């Protein structure tokens, strides 16, 4: 049986193997010896052709080897040239003038711009070790090992019993945070599935672990939200690619090997991710600050909209919505026709703009181009102010697609705004954003001088003092009282445009020049909050004193409550 099986199976194997390799023609029939000798002797032309091909192939091989040898020293030279004596302004100018578009050390530049690493490379060893030790402490604190928990099992009254409901119980924490892991994992498994790197199990586990630890560590200020996994995916993938290049480079020095040690991929990725999320945290905040009334500019007051929804006239405003609206309103200064077109179509900028800000335009450009854009964003300033200019430049570039494809309908325009990877040439948009930044400075410098001159005139003008003003002797109260006579700020707040609830120091919109009016408004708003806190303290004192009075009427407390609400 064995011999017959081998006989029957060998032809099948041969046919299967032959299907994967080119078939050779059958040998020619036997010929006379004279013809064989004539065919076997090659001609002089064929000999010269073969020798030429061999020399050509050897020349190509030598050329490739020379290119490799030329590339290898340049990598080490670029690292030493960038980081041995790191000049922040020089590197920043090279990036913003597009002299330095790409670099094999992009993540190292990120770590410097994000203050993960100091500018002086002589301190890097100590800082890197400390950052990686901090990550290990977070892992030991937030990752629960089931085996260790089971070893400490006790009776039903013991804290570590699996059925314990105590907050400090390890088992209780394990079950509570398993739901968080499941929610994160649902997003992680959908991360960039077109790239094979993100289909590996150990990479998915790494993303899950980093997002889970960050959410546990920053649960009160920055819990996990959908979209954060895409930010982390870009960081991990970029470090991985650069690590492969550096580790394959034979002349890498000790610092290069330490920066790109594959064993510490999670440690270094978490450090960068944590810094980025400190800036993106307001974009993921769902808290509502106030309610604004939205009113389209192209509609008359008497015009009615059929099937008008409540959300069409009333919008819940938070920092993200205010930031998007503030950027969008500046579009009319650069592209008035596009601004009017979007207004006529009634396309709200928050529909597409919130995703742009939360993902740092990660879906609007090719995945391989994201590190190039992020390097510009991180180096521009410490507040990600370049995001505003790139937002406008990207919107204007999509507006050019509207004109090119002659699109004017609501559904098609919204599809272009929401479509991923609709920009193929990133450098064009970056150059446009840099030009907008220059135009903004030139446009706002006259406004700055005008505001200063107007302010000096106001300061020189005499002021009439009332008995109430003389009684206060508090400049904060006086400035607040003066600021209440400017209804334009209140009207802008009601429309939900260009307003923010944070102080100029805390707001990312006011950390770059050209926001003087907004800063004055924020300052007055901050003063009003300060005065309101003082009034609340006085009201509490009055209420506490009145509660001790025997003949207390409820009308007095009701009036105090009403005053407190005001």
Provide an overview of this structure.
By secondary structure, this protein is mainly alpha-helical. It has 24 helices and two strands. The protein has a two-stranded antiparallel ribbon.
Radius of gyration: 34 Å
Determine the strand fraction and express it as a percent band. Answer: under 5%
The coarse silhouette is globular
Number of strands: 2
Query: What is the overall pLDDT average?
Result: 74
Helicity, in percent? 55-70%
Number of helices: 24
Which parts are unreliable, with pLDDT below 50 for 5 consecutive residues or more? 1-25, 31-43, 46-73, 293-313, 456-515
What are the secondary-structure elements, in order, as H or E?
Answer: HHHHHHHHHHHHEEHHHHHHHHHHHH
Major sheet details = 2 strands, antiparallel
First-residue to last-residue Cα separation = 99 Å
Structural class: mainly alpha
Strand order of the largest sheet: 1-2
Descriptive keywords:
566 residues, mainly alpha, 64% helix, globular
TL;DR of this structure?
With 566 residues, the chain is an all-alpha fold.
Question: How do the strands and helices of this protein lay out in sequence?
Answer:
Blueprint: H1 2-19, H2 33-40, H3 44-83, H4 88-96, H5 106-113, H6 124-142, H7 146-151, H8 170-188, H9 201-217, H10 228-248, H11 254-259, H12 265-280, E1 290-293, E2 314-317, H13 319-329, H14 336-345, H15 349-358, H16 370-380, H17 386-404, H18 410-418, H19 426-460, H20 467-472, H21 475-483, H22 487-495, H23 516-547, H24 554-565
Antiparallel strand pairs: 1-2
Helix pairs in contact: 5-16, 6-12, 8-9, 9-12, 10-12, 13-15, 17-19, 21-23, 23-24
């Amino acid at each position: 049986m064995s011999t017959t099986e081998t006989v029957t199976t060998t032809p099948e194997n041969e046919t299967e193997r032959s299907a994967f390799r080119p078939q050779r023609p059958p040998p020619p029939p036997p010929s006379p010896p004279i013809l064989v000798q004539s065919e076997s002797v090659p001609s002089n032309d064929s000999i010269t052709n073969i020798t030429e091909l061999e020399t050509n192939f050897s020349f190509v091989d030598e050329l490739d080897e020379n290119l490799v040898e030329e590339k290898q020293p340049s990598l080490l030279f670029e690292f030493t040239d960038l980081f041995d004596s790191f000049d922040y302004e020089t590197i920043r100018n090279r990036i913003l003038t597009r002299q330095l578009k790409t670099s094999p050390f992009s993540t190292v530049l990120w770590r410097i711009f994000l203050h993960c690493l100091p500018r002086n490379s002589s301190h890097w060893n100590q800082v890197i070790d400390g950052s990686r030790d901090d990550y290990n402490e977070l892992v030991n604190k937030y990752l629960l090992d089931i085996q260790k928990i089971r070893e400490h099992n006790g009776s039903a009254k013991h804290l570590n019993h699996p059925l314990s409901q105590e907050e400090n119980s390890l088992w209780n924490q394990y079950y509570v945070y398993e739901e968080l892991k499941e929610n994160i994992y649902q997003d992680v498994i959908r991360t960039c599935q077109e790239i094979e790197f993100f289909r590996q199990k150990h990479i998915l586990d790494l993303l899950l672990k980093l997002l889970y630890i960050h959410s546990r560590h920053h649960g009160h200020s920055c819990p996990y939200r959908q979209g954060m996994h895409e930010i982390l995916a870009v960081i991990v993938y970029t470090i991985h690619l650069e690590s492969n290049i550096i580790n394959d480079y034979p002349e890498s020095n000790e610092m290069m090997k330490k920066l790109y040690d594959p064993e510490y991929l999670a440690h270094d990725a978490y450090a960068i991710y944590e810094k980025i999320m400190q800036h993106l945290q307001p974009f993921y905040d769902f808290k509502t600050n106030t309610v604004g009334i939205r009113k389209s500019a192209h509609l008359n007051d008497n015009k009615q909209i059929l099937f008008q929804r409540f959300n069409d006239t009333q919008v819940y405003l938070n920092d993200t919505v205010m930031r998007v609206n503030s950027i969008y309103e500046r579009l009319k200064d650069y592209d008035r026709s596009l601004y009017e077109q979007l207004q006529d179509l009634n396309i709200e900028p928050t529909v597409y703009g919130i995703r742009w800000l939360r993902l740092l335009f990660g879906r609007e450009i090719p995945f391989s181009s994201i590190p190039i854009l992020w390097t510009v964003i991180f180096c521009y300033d410490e507040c990600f102010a370049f995001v505003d200019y790139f937002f406008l430049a990207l919107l204007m570039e999509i507006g050019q697609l509207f004109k090119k494809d002659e699109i004017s309908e609501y559904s098609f325009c919204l599809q272009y705004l929401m479509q991923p990877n609709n920009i193929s040439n990133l450098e064009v948009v970056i150059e446009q954003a840099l030009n907008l930044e220059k135009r903004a400075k030139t446009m706002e410098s006259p406004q700055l001088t005008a505001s200063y001159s107007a302010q000096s005139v106001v300061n020189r003008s005499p002021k009439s003092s009332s008995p109430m003003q003389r009684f206060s002797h508090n400049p904060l109260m006086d400035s607040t009282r003066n600021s209440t006579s400017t209804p334009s700020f209140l009207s802008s707040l009601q429309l939900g445009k260009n307003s923010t609830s944070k102080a100029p120091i805390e707001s990312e919109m006011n950390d770059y020049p050209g926001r003087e009016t907004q800063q004055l408004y924020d300052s007055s708003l901050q003063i009003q909050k300060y005065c309101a806190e003082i009034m609340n303290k006085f009201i509490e004192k009055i209420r506490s004193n009145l509660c001790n009075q025997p003949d207390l009427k409820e009308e007095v407390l009701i009036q105090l409550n009403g005053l407190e609400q005001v």
